[in-house]
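Section handout 9: paired folding examples.
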Amino acid sequence: MAAVRAVDLSDPGEVRRLEAHVAEQPGGTAFHRPAWLNAVARATDNRALVLVLERRDAIAAYLPLLEVHSPLFGRVMVSSGFGVDGGILADRPADAEALFGAVEELALRRSCPAIELRGGLLPQGRTGWKIRHDSHCGFSTDLAPDDDAQLTAIPRKQRAEVRKGLAGELTVSVGTDAAQRAAHYAVYAESVRNLGTPVFPKALFGAVLDAFGADADILTVSQGETPVASVLSLYHKGAVMPYWGGGTMAARRLRANDRMYFELMLHARRRGCTRFDFGRSKTGSGAFDFKKNWGFEPQPLGYAAWTAPGAEARDADPTSAKHAARIALWKRLPLPVANLLGPHIARGLA
């Protein structure tokens, strides 16, 4: 007999059980981990939820969720919130079907008119759901066996940019201490302001680093004493994912971002990784082209969105015409103002 239930993420025993389950699942990602859910929930004042389908005391289907509240974008349940993957992990489609129904019921009960699933098994033929495979692509490839081979594996044009970064007077450091965290946040905040995006709360980065322990770190490229590029990376099942990264205005001239990603490839291999996961990018975006220039082949990702009966479809797409004026305005804000206002808005940008 199978039954669906909500899991208490404040119970250490339940968390250990779920962490073990995610680690065993071929499709399990860092964003399925309870460590991720609890960290982002605490840091953004949202609520973490988990639904499981159990059969004979074994987990047959698993769905991590973040219930997000935003004055600008409304209420939504996201799997997985602030992540680029997630969705239902299930032994078979019939088990996933039970969780689709359960999450729809949960969303209605909690007055959430929208659900987003990023990856995993997707609903087929269910009313209210829209499935897309054309909005985002993932980029992932194996790491080379040594430093020279890693450089050679990069296509010629991009390799020339990396060489310029290697020839510059730049230094590289890796760690998770207070200085690394401060440097990363300063660089990242400037980078996203320049893109027209509110910066996430500083507490989010700290919470994820603390929750992931050895499975996360920061790599920073500096010119003298000044950080110019920095990335917070996640490590999961032998793969490194540079997740929150960016550079200052000087980074492009110095080729600091190119140096940063190459150094991360070397660092990840030295700590035992065999794969480099460049994460997702919007199809056709500048980031999409940048990753292709590194020789990564785009892989379309499957996303699903549900809208409650009678509700308007949620639009939190930064490339939509609705948000274009807001993005243009944000790019012109003084950095201290953007850093003050951004975290209050970004808590709802899951």
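Moving on to protein 2 of 2.
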Amino acid sequence: MSDAERFPVPADHPDREVLEWEAFGHAIRDLARTIVASAWQPDVVVAIARGGLVPAGALAYALETKAMGTLNVEFYRGVGETLPDPVVLPPALDPAELTGKRVLVVDDVADSGRTLLLVLDLVRQHGADVRSAVVYAKPTSIVEPTYRWRETDRWILFPWSSLPPVTGIASTDA
């Protein structure tokens, strides 16, 4: 059974790709199998925060890679709203620590590809053997990720970011 048959786009969101937790679990296992089949094993998994945190952690577990790092990059402000360029935010991972390592850079989506390109270039500048993995790639991306689970041209609703933020003062009721 194909991914599209197992995880169809809900009829109430024809312009959205909705990823549920169960499908995410299958996506990570599929990505891990693809990476293993390529006969390449990362020494370090680097998450592009925030969207890449959950996929990177799940992939690190699936690949039995214990070393992880995070690069915080801001680019998207909302649906279709971006900064002029992606910006690395503090605290920053020391890329010099990646010299000579096999590094898997992970994000949730390669949309424009500009964030992924920024991080890949930063890691490559320090002599790492770097590859990339994303849950989704879009045809508009300027970077072809090394590994991807699915391609779409829709806006993606991820299970970890589809609900609005929790705001206000937390209740002290027991």
